[in-house]
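Many introductory courses stop at the sequence. We go one step further.
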Amino acid sequence: MKKLLILACLALMMFGTASCKFLFKKPVVEKIHDVKILAINPDKTDLEVAISVKNPNCYKLVVNTMEINLLNREREKIGTARLLKKVEIPKKKSNALNFQISLDTRPAVRMLNHSEQKLFMYLGGEGVGRVMGVNKRFEFEEPYELDFKSKLQDVMAGFDAKGQDIFVLKRSYVEKVGLAETSLKVDFIIMNPYGLKFTLQGFPAAIRIGGKEVGKGNLLEPLAFDETVYSREGSMVFKVSNWKSIVGAVKGALQGEISYEVGGDVDISGYGMRFTRPFDYDGTISVNLSEILLN
């Protein structure tokens, strides 16, 4: 009788184990819990992706491996991340699995919806879950829109890249000397390291020489940029009165150059935004004192 009871218990245990294998349900990716932009620089954009995975089983689930892929609209892969360590999910519970992904910034910017500053993508992937020694593979793919607006505002409002000014001064010189007014011209380069689409509408500014304001100026013309434009040359023109007396009174003119400072507000539009930001720079103007005073 005891032998029959033992055999019956063993049979029940074997049946239970076997039924677990057959009744083991696949883990379910419930939703893309969140996608955050951790950082954006001219080369890379770092994202954190949180995915909610549910264990529908009556036993603890161990997610051994999982890989997620970011795809563009054409379902071309633009980023990949893998689970770094095993994750346990209690029975009938859900856990958020976190991944960090780096994207190339310029291709990511090209994918933006320029009117809403949103990045549309597909998040897909596959993983392997284990319950009581049984492995099962699961897959998922979901569309997702990531709001880039606040980060783009930060980048554009910063008007700099990795500590180096986007504005690079080339040369400053006297363009035309007149009886009542003299034109000074400043040539520069504007860099577009992020591949952003924007227009530098204006740069109304004042020029100071010897600590005194001597004239005002602005961009010669607006400068437009998009993801295909890495840099563009531009110019500012300043109108200055009493140029001869200014040059004669300023130290350094005898050595053939005059130091100056410019301060004003850059006027930028892009991605449905328009804003101004204070910006200043300084440089030197090459002058020929004898020619100016004799004219």
